[in-house]
Amino acid sequence: MLWEVEGKWVVQGAVTVDIGANPSAEGGDEDEGVDDQAIKVVDIVDTFRLQEQPAFDKKQFVTYMKRYIKNLTPKLEATKQETFKKNIEGATKFLLAKLKDLQFFVGESMHDDGSLVFAYYKDGATNPTFLYFPYGLKEVKC
Fold it and tell me: Where does the secretion signal sit in this chain (predicted)?
């Protein structure tokens, strides 16, 4: 019931061009060409302009899930409603078990009725894993 997507830390900033010079041999600064404006961002957060939200406690999360289910269910086709109802409880329990490790994100509009995107780091991982409710997503043709 949850889609799992691996995020990746990427460097964002001006492009450094290597012209083949050897600064140490030529008496130049070894940091020459390094961009002080470069920052590390998670590709998924940056690409989709996700906005991080404060962490939820258990009560807040359960309240959010009840409202999310109530709002989303009528928007689904009848056949998808049954599958959604069968699987959402398991997904909610899975997320509740990981609640302390989750980061919460919403879309750029920060709309109250929008779906949350969840992120966490698997054991030993340096890149975050994002979790999505598939029924809360719209397919967009690119």
Answer: none
Integer Cα distance of 71 and 96 in angstroms: 20
Per-residue pLDDT reduced to its tens digit, 79-131: 999 999 999 999 999 999 999 999 999 998 887 777 899 999 999 999 999 99
Q: How many CA atoms lie within 13 A of 114 on its CB side?
A: 16
Q: Which one is the CATH code of 3-136: 1.10.10.10, 2.60.40.420, 1.10.390.10, 2.170.150.10?
A: 2.170.150.10
Residues forming beta bridges with residue 41, ordered by sequence position: 10
Return d(Cα 99, Cα 102) in angstroms, integer.
5
Instruction: List, for residues 10-64, the tens digit of each pLDDT value.
Output: 998 766 666 666 666 655 555 555 556 889 999 999 999 999 999 999 999 999 9
Alpha carbon 26 to its chain's center: 45
Question: How far is 21 from 27, CA to CA, in rounded Å?
Answer: 11
pTM of the predicted protein model: 0.80
Contact 50, 111 (CB under 8 A): no
